[in-house]
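Q: Structure for this?
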Amino acid sequence: MTEPSRRRSGGLVRSYVITGGRARAGTPLDVVTLLLATQNTRPLHHLTVEQRGIVDICRGGALLSLAEVASHLGLPVSVTRVLVVDLIDAGLIATRTAPVVQNAGPELLKEVLDALRARL
Amino acid sequence: MHSAPVSDGMYLAPTVERAVKILVVGHFGVGKTTLVGGLSEITPLRTEEVMTKPSELVDDLSALPDKTTTTVALDFGRLTLTQQLVLYLFGAPGQDRFKGLWQDLAYGALGALVLADTRALQQSFEVFDRVEEYGLPYAVAVNHFTGSRRYDDEEVREALDLHPETPLVTCDARDVNSSSQALITLVEYLHNRAVQKEAP
């Protein structure tokens, strides 16, 4: 039997319980920030179920965005962000991408454009 | 090895080092999810966001009575563009009550593709307000629904009060090529803008 997802269980646990009462992450992490687990072999038994879920899904160099991690674990992005920041501070999760910047330059947009055209 | 119950193809290629996002916005039922789903390389994902009302500023959710929170479902998809670059498409509702969500999504987004339906153009006004409020450059794609009347571009432009520079295309959100073309039109516009901005 598979474990019922949090979403299907109707969100019995309130967001603020999962995050320990905090609503905001200290470091801004964008929804498309790419995450992966570090090589840290520290035991995970002190982590909450949700934090372990995040570390597990990002294991082995597997790369996912913050939004994808949230979706796969059935957690709101805002909650996942708070938990991920804690895991980054604990050295268990690392970010791959540079922080998102406002106003992308022409080089980046050209790269996106060429790639989209090549798909047609 | 990961222990999560996940299928192959879920993860990004390990070479990816940059992620960008574009918002696909429009009122309910305009075809956002269809368009995002058609373009996405993964089954579109959904996450539910708990939001506070726009007027409330809170630092601590535990101090928040339940009636001031609301949840919104957010659908998104993914396109790996090159070995290094991935594009995420977020379907975003334009209603005023989703302002909190917008702040998060709009920051750093390349731009927005506004989906409109000629049978309900007035429903798009709120969407345009939101896109403009966050200063997102955008293109408009009229999603053509079977049986709906086709209007001249000029008629649509006038009805939506579009800036002459704003690109306008007609698309069929169920057709991947048509959706891709709409996205390309947006990125062409974004690229031209960025080039002009850099010119002395």
